[in-house]
Write a structure and sequence with these properties.
The complex is a heterodimer.
Chain A lengths: L8 E4 L5 E6 L11 E6 L6 E4 L13 E6 L2 E6 L8 E8 L5 E3 L3 E5 L1
Parallel strand pairs in A: 1-9
Antiparallel strand pairs in A: 2-6, 3-4, 3-7, 5-6, 7-8, 7-9
Chain B lengths: L2 E5 L2 E3 L5 E8 L8 E6 L5 E7 L6 E3 L7 E6 L4 E6 L8 E8 L8 E4 L3 E5 L2
Classes of the chains: A mainly beta, B mainly beta.
């Protein structure tokens, strides 16, 4: 069980778009639709932002979108806003009742 | 309103045991899988363990396999994590989280506020 790989940081100016990648293997990200993304503000519990690669839970703005190609999943935040500044984690089912998280990406809104 | 309230954390010496509990309310508990996820101070999220709706599918991270045991009591709407042979590296905030469905693979759509476990002599 190796953690999924995310860039440690990402940034963008208000109104811009930013994409965060999440690289796994053919045993996890590449093999299942169960890839999700979580947003975590300092001192707060994680919040589900994207599930099943590209689905948005109720209440999550459509500025957040997800996709997957091969073993790499991506989260795109369009029209960046100040409140989007947070840590973002990807997660994937890895088979045999196991789950994996990425190391997290700190998104800074410049 | 879905609520998940963790308890049982605290300061414990290396090698000792601790049992975490998660009280669930606001939803039909036995319709959903449940997970424990931890976060060491200043670090990222780490999945610890998951259990499906009827306890016949259970998974553990390699880092806790053989030391931690997850369980649930659907009659009491409660999730548990028995932690044995604790190590300093188990120090973390432990979150209880609800899966979106009855199986372990689905994402976690509700999270508790966490209970802090500190392993130190």
């Amino acid at each position: 069980q190796s953690a999924l790989t995310q860039p440690p940081s990402a940034s963008g100016s208000p109104g811009q778009s930013v994409t965060i990648s999440c690289t796994g293997t053919s045993s996890d990200v590449g093999n299942y639709k169960y890839v999700s993304w979580y947003q975590q503000h300092p001192g707060r519990a994680p919040k589900l932002t994207i599930y099943e690669v590209s689905e948005r839970p109720s209440g999550v703005p459509d500025r957040f979108s997800g996709s997957k190609s091969g073993n790499t999943a991506s989260l795109t935040v369009s029209g960046l806003q100040a409140e989007d500044e947070a840590d973002y984690y990807c997660s994937s089912y890895a088979g045999s009742n196991n789950m994996l998280f990425g190391g997290g990406t700190k998104l800074t809104v410049l | 309103e879905v609520q998940l309230v963790e308890s049982g954390g605290g300061l414990v010496q290396p090698g000792r045991s601790l049992r975490l509990s998660c009280a669930a309310s606001g939803f039909t508990f036995d319709d959903y899988a449940m997970h424990w996820v931890r976060q060491a101070p200043g670090k990222g999220l780490e999945w610890v363990s998951g259990i499906n709706w009827n306890s016949d599918r259970i998974g553990y991270a390699d880092s806790v396999k053989g030391r931690f045991t997850i369980s649930r009591d659907n009659a009491k709407n409660s999730l548990y994590l028995q932690m044995n042979s604790l190590r300093a590296e188990d120090t973390a905030l432990y979150y209880c989280a609800r899966g979106r469905g009855s199986g372990i693979a689905a994402a976690d759509d509700y999270w508790g506020q966490g209970t802090l476990v500190t392993v130190s002599s």
